[in-house]
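Handout, section B. The chain below has 317 residues.
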Amino acid sequence: MKKDFPVNDRGAAISMIGAMLILGFTDNFIVFIAEIMSLWQFQFIRAVIALPLIVCIAYLLKITIRPKRPWAVALRSLFLTIAMIFYFWSLAFIPMAQALAGLFTSPIFILIISGLIFRQSISFIQIVAVFIGFIGIIFVVDTELTELTFFSFLPVFGGLFYAMAAVATREFCEGETTLALLASIMIMQGFVGMCALYIIAWVSPEVPNGAAGFILREWVWNINSVMPWITLQAVGAILGIGLIFRAYQIGQASQVAVFEYSALIFGPFFAWVLIGQQVNLMQLLGILLIAIAGSLIALRSLKSCLLYTSDAADEED
């Protein structure tokens, strides 16, 4: 966390809950967008809408959008772009509750990556949390093994890359401004979308109708019916992601992370109101287990951080 921001855990919690409220609402409209256009065109147009807004905000607030370490910010943006591809792709085929539960397996992957790659110590409680989260995933999927499909695992793949983005942010992107990170992710998503559209136009695959063609569809010109949802997504992304970054700037990261799980409430709620998606008791239990697992990992990380800080202070004395 940056030193020049006063710690305000209550404000950070409000910011994070507000972010999850916004994103939990706007992400539901992917279902309608997937019927008309491709994932790649959606990401490209959303970036085209969002980037000028980010530039204007940066100009008015006199905040730089130029990263200090371009390679690190680009790597983080690539990981996050891949995570969002899996997440948005899954939203076209599976209920919001399952998609969010899969994405929020990221703390489990963060723990694994931190232990295996960065050789950080892992406590017994954190290991238990991993098993709790795994059981939660099984409950949320709520289907027979023979009925599992590739789409069932899309959000979990998203959770893996989301975790990689989180680790890259923590390890390599310290000191970057919120708007620099936000602009970078939009640029990366727009670039990947443009490249994918070019490849699809060159290959010219057979495209099924409706949401089934979300990943294979070429550029579509008649998109007037979904432009309001794309615009809403672009504005929502700026507000939501901006609030997330702000929360981590003014609050203790491990405590703030717990409030991210409010998305598991807002997302399914709006999916029920707007689309009529329902969540059964088994899936609710799975969502609760995933939230408990992530919270245990986050709070244990906070305790370890406090112990390390205390030991360091004692050594200085």
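Note. The longest helix spans residues 281-316. Compare this with the example in section A.
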